[in-house]
Write a structure and sequence with these properties.
Largest sheet: 7 strands, antiparallel
Number of domains: 1
CATH class: Mainly Beta
CATH superfamily: q2cbj1_9rhob like domain
CATH architecture: Sandwich
Bound molecules: ligand 6CS, fe (iii) ion
Radius of gyration: 19 Å
Structural class: alpha+beta
Shape: globular
CATH topology: Jelly Rolls
Order of helices and strands: HEHEHHEEHHHEEHEEEHHEEE
Strand content: 15-25%
Number of helices: 10
Amino acid sequence: MMQSAVHTSRVRADDRYPSRHAPVAQISPRHDAVVHGNAGSGPLTQRELLFYQDNGYLHFDQLLDEADVATCLQELQRLRLSESIKRADEAILEPDSGELRSIFAVHRSSEALRTLCEHPKLVGIARQLLGGDVYIHQSRINYKGGFRGKEFYWHSDFETWHVEDGIPAMRMLSCSISLTANTPYNGPLMVIPGSHKRYLSCVGETPDNHYKESLRRQEVGVPDDESLARLVEDLGIAAPTGLAGAVTFFECNIMHGSSSNITPLPRSNLFVVYNSVENKPVEPFCGLAPRPNYIAEREDFTPLPYPASN
Ligand code: 6CS
Ligand code: FE
C-alpha cells in the first residue's frame, strides 16, 4: 500500500500512459483511437484503414518513384562521407565501431531529404490516419551498414516520445522509406502486428541525457522479456520487406525492432515521424529536461503543406 502510494505520487495527473515509475512492468489497454480520420478524407481505402486499425502498420511495395529515392540515397552517401556531418550532434555513431548509425533532423539539413519527408503521397496518408494537419516531430536516416550494422532492440516509440518528449496521446506515426532493398536477411523492420493496442509500461528510471546512450543502444524504455514473449505468443511477428521506394507506415505504439546486419548489403531507411498538430508536446513525463530539438521538435509546429502545389 505504502509502496504504491510512493510510486503513484510521481505520476502526473495528466499522464495517461505512465511508464518507468513502477518496479514491475504492466500491460494496459490503449486509450486513444488508432485511425483518427476516415475513408474519403485521403488516399487510403476503407480496407487499408481497417488493416492499419487492426495491425498497426501498412506497407506499400512501391509507393515512391525510383528517381526520388535514388536522389536521397545519393544524398545519404554524401552525408556519410562528410567528416563535418559525422562530428555534428545530429550524427549518432555505433557504440563499438564508431560507424555512422543515424543522422537526425535530415529534413532540416538536406533539401532532397526534406522534399521526400514532405512528399504529398506521404503527407496525404499521414493526414488521413491522424485526422488533419500534421508536422514533423522527428526525421532521421538509419544507415545500417553491411557486415556489422547493429540492431535496434524492441521498443514502442510512443513510450519514449511520451516519457522523454512529453507527447500526450497516441496520435502520431512513423513512416519508413527504404532507400536500399530491405530483405529478410539485412535486418529489416520487424513489427508485432496488433501490439499498438496494448501499452507496455517499462521498468527503470530515465537517466539524465538518456538520448546520448539510448540512440546508440537502448536499455531503458524497452520491454521486459516476459511481456515481449507474451506479445509475440499472442500476436506473432511480421517483417515487411521491399526494394528501394517501398514504404511502411507504423503506428507510434506498435512494438518493433530490427536485427543486426551481417550481410554485405547496407539497409538504409529514411524515417519520418508525423504528429497531429493537436498533439503537441508538453513537459516530459519523466520530469527531466526535454531532448534537443533535432531529436524531438518543440519549436516549429507549422503544418506540412497539403495539397502540395506540384
Ligand atoms: O528515441 C527516439 O526517439 C528514437 N529511438 C528509437 C530506438 N526509435 C524511435 C526514435 O527514433
Ligand atoms: Fe523505433
